[in-house]
Amino acid sequence: MATALRPTDPALLHYRSGGFFLARAQQVDGGLTRGIRDVLLGLVAATDEPISGGRHKVFGRADLSIIPQTSTIASHLPRAVGVAFSTDRARKLRVPCHWPDDAVTVCSFGDASVNHSTAVGALNTAMHTAYQGMPIESR
Length: 139
Known about the structure:
By secondary structure, the chain is mostly helical. Helices cover about 40% and strands about 5% of the residues. It has helices at about 20-30, 35-45, 75-95, 115-130; strands at about 10, 105. Helix 3 (about 75-95) packs parallel to helix 4 (about 115-130).
């Protein structure tokens, strides 16, 4: 999925989305060295790990437009809805936004997340925005 999106499209990733992280790193870095280094530093809980300082496994890097999330199951889904909503809202109001006007916000999550209230709330919110003409979709 990462190669179908632009490196400027915001992504909030599940902790098992290493493939996405490495594909995005390859798009930006032109190779896998830095991305693999970041993942390995996280696996050995190294203090040099760039996002959590080795405290827990989480993907994130500003230059990859990968927004770090907490380890709480499905807690990043409402944030993804908020990023998508605010990006579209900023475009409509003509105010500056970190993301491109036509950004696609992507959020990955595992099957255990689906029955959590935060996931259900985020999916319901994304679907409800269709009534407001917002381009938020869940697939």
